[in-house]
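Could someone model zinc ion with this protein?
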Amino acid sequence: MIPQSFIQDLLNRVDIVDVVGKYVQLKKGGANFMGLCPFHNEKSPSFTVSPTKQFYHCFGCGAHGSAIGFLMEYSGQSYPEAVRELAQSVGMSVPEERDRLPPGQRAEQQARSVALSDAMTRATDFYRRQLRGAPQAIQYLKGRGLTGEIAAQFGLGYAPMTGRVSKPCSAVTAMTRSRPRWSKRAC
Ligand SMILES: [Zn+2]
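Reply:
Sure, complex below.
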C-alpha cells in the first residue's frame, strides 16, 4: 500500500502538462493545452490538459484523469508502477506502508504468517492421515477416477463424521481466533 499523503505530495510536485507532453504533442489554447487524443482516433484535437486543475479530459471519448491515470491508461501500467515512474521523474522515492511498521510489529507479522502456514501444514497432514485410514473414502475417490498419486499431489484428505475429531488440531483452533500468540502444540 502506498500512503495517500505521498500520492498528494507527488501530484503537487508533478506537472501533468509535462507528463502528457512526453507522449502527446500539446499546444496552448487559452488556459488549457490541447492535442490529438491518444485514446481515440481523431483529426482535430478534442483532448485537453488543464495545468490549473492538473487533469486531462477528452471531449471526444470522455477519457479523463490525473497524471497517474494518464500513465496507467496510456502505457498499461498498474497503479503502483505509474506512481513509481512519476516519483522517479521528480526525484521522489515511494514509501511502502510496511516500511513504516516498527520492527517489533514486523517481526510479529512474520511470526504470524509462519504460524499460519505451520497450522495449515498440520491440518493437511491430519486429514491426509484420516484418508489413509478410511477405506470407504478411498473407494469413493477411486470411483471418481482419482488415483493415490493424484490424492498425494493435491493433498487430498478426509474429514470423518465422528465427533471424536471435532477438535482435530490445536494449531488450527488457535489460528481462527486471530490472536497474536499462537499455540504450538502438535495435533
Ligand atoms: Zn479521446
